[in-house]
């Protein structure tokens, strides 16, 4: 469906430009946008490699296990039906850690791994468990202490102060996470009735 919407938007833009005699602007804009996308991607590769490397080192060095030990009481409250020593807990901790570091692109594969681990605990394979819904809610809001990806984008775009958004990001992501966890718990209570 999304492909149809994008096709309609592109076609209507091209038709509108053609009707106004400015079809060359469509071509120039498309080429410039593609060039900008490649430049931005190349600028972000370094930052993403750095943070993904740090996460891998943290995993191999046992730091993730230490963080898991520290976060276990909180994660245990958020995911009460997941056994403490199950691999899903480690995957959930990795996902939350990536969110805390603001690694939006790294959260996706880690979240998928956590969901796969949670699926092993799922008695109904075609229905999401409450733990899966909670993890999805946490990944969606993504409480962030260091918005590394946004800082990298702002820096790549030439911002004079790319870290100016850190305070606002912490506040907004904290309140969004608290709100979504409250809604998640309310929905879980209502579904039990």
TrEMBL record:
Keywords, comma-separated and alphabetical: Membrane, Transmembrane, Transmembrane helix
Nucleotidyltransferase is among the record's keywords: no
TM annotation in the entry: 6-23, 44-71, 91-112, 133-157, 163-183
Entries under InterPro entries matching the protein: Gate_dom
Pfam families assigned: Gate
Domain of life, source organism: Bacteria
Keyword Membrane: yes
Protein name, per record: Spore maturation protein A
Originating species: Sporomusa acidovorans (strain ATCC 49682 / DSM 3132 / Mol)
Taxonomic path: Bacteria, Bacillati, Bacillota, Negativicutes, Selenomonadales
């Amino acid at each position: 469906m999304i492909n149809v919407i994008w096709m309609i938007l592109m076609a209507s833009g091209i038709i509108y430009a053609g009707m106004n005699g400015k079809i060359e602007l469509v071509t120039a804009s498309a080429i410039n946008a593609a060039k900008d996308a490649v430049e931005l991607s190349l600028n972000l590769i370094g930052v993403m490699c750095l943070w993904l490397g740090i996460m891998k080192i943290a995993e191999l060095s046992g730091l993730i296990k230490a963080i898991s030990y520290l976060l276990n009481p909180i994660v245990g409250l958020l995911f009460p039906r997941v056994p403490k020593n199950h691999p899903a807990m480690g995957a959930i901790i990795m996902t939350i850690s990536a969110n805390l570091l603001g690694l939006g692109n790294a959260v996706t594969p880690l979240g998928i791994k956590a969901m796969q681990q949670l699926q092993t605990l799922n008695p109904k394979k075609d229905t999401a468990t409450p733990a899966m819904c909670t993890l999805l809610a946490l990944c969606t809001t993504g409480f962030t202490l260091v918005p590394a990806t946004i800082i990298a984008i702002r820096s790549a775009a030439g911002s004079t102060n790319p870290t100016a958004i850190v305070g606002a990001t912490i506040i907004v992501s904290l309140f969004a996470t608290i709100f979504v966890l409250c809604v998640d718990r309310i929905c879980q209570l209502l579904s039990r009735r």
